[in-house]
Amino acid sequence: MNILIIQTAYLGDVILTTPLIGQVRCAYPESRISILVIPQTADILNRHKDIDEIIIYDKRKWGGLISKTPGLIRNVYNKFDIAISPHLSARSAIIALMSGARIRVGFEKSAFKQLYTHRAIYGCGHIVERYANLIKSLGFEIPPDKITLGVDESDIMRANDILKGARDKNAPLVGIFPQSEWFTKTPPLPLLKTAIKSTLKEIYFHPVFLGSRADNEISIFSKEVGGIDLMGKTDLNLLKGIVSMLDVVISGDSSGVHIASAFLKPTIVIYGATRPGQGYYPWMNEYYAIMADISCAPCSPHGGNKCPQGHFNCMNNIRPENISNRLLDIIKHSKL
Questions:
Q1: Considering only CA atoms, which of 13, 22, 128 is closest in space to residue 3?
Q2: Is the same domain home to 164 and 284?
Q3: Which CATH number is 245's domain given?
Q4: Are the CB atoms for 268 and 330 separated by under 8 Å?
């Protein structure tokens, strides 16, 4: 049996799909499982134990769905028995239909939902639990497990080469993800700087700065505090190896949070335009939400590129000591 899972959303969404992949494997242990993703997210699924094939679909490069039809036909047309889409878009529903699958599973709130033979309740709660409703709609009662990302020895060796000097000093490694795809989910750099400096006055640790884009200001600050600047310097396979070796993670509401969940790392999440109640909080690992008490948040399901109110108080009203005190507490009580 050939099964296609369609998830063409952002990196964090793909990571949060991995418990569903495990459920599908549990339900259909002898099946061949393929997943369709965009190029920017494909490598995060490398080495995943339950995936047989990663199909890359570049939905942005050449325009709309029609222009990519030849490539889609080559990769998915009439090749699958079951198609499952946690993604809500009309494009995903059309791809499910193109796959030739007689069983097509989506959500009742999906665009073009009439193209699905099985429509699951979207519900509420954590997004992993919502995705679990997809397999439940097929008659399986399989609880979702942890987020799973594959890491092999080469990833670990590369990460160890980078972190060896810091690890030899026997101080905690604190991973810091200061970036997000969306401005309103990005913690202000002065907030992070003050929190990190305050904590370093109390206890020694190694800040490890992680992100997809290099940042000159962060690079300068990293040198100032004796950190390790890996901004824009890691591929996704190396990033998995790095995070697996960290002791604590600090991040805005972005993919760094979910990579940390895969390795059950204690995580401090700094929320701006979004809130944990929207369902994208860390899954199965210890975490602490830092957020301002402000009535206009959440203002978006995924953040935006500007504050609708013009003041950005969801981030600007966060006190740096709330972050530093929580980090101190984790380091001291976890005996790192």
A1: 22
A2: yes
A3: 3.40.50.2000
A4: yes
Contact 247, 173 (CB under 8 A): yes
Note whether 6 and 97 are same-domain residues: yes
Question: Could you tell me the two tokens for 111?
Answer: 């665009």
The pTM of the whole model exceeds 0.85? yes
Q: Which residues contact 309 (CB under 8 A, 6 or more apart)?
A: 296, 299
Residues 120 and 237 in one domain: no
CA angle, residues 276, 132, 8, in degrees to nearest 5 = 75
Residues 103 and 232 in one domain: no
Adjacent-strand bridge partners of 173? 206
Range of the domain at 91: 2-136
Best CA proximity match to 54, nearest among 25, 70, 76, 69: 76
Tens-digit pLDDT string for the chain (336 aa): 999 999 999 999 999 999 999 999 999 999 999 999 999 999 999 999 999 999 999 877 545 555 555 566 678 888 999 999 999 999 999 999 999 999 999 999 999 999 999 999 999 999 999 999 999 999 999 999 999 999 999 999 999 999 988 876 789 999 999 999 999 999 999 999 999 999 999 999 999 999 999 999 999 999 999 999 999 999 999 999 999 999 999 999 999 999 999 999 999 999 999 999 999 999 999 999 999 999 999 999 889 999 999 999 999 999 999 999 999 999 998 755
At which of 80, 101, 136 does a domain end? 136
Task: List own/partner pairs for 310-316 with CB under 8 A and 24 or more apart.
Answer: 312/184, 312/272, 314/184, 314/271, 314/272, 314/273, 315/184, 315/186, 315/187, 315/188, 315/191, 315/270, 315/272, 316/188, 316/292
Determine contact, residues 267/287, Cβ cutoff 8 Å: yes
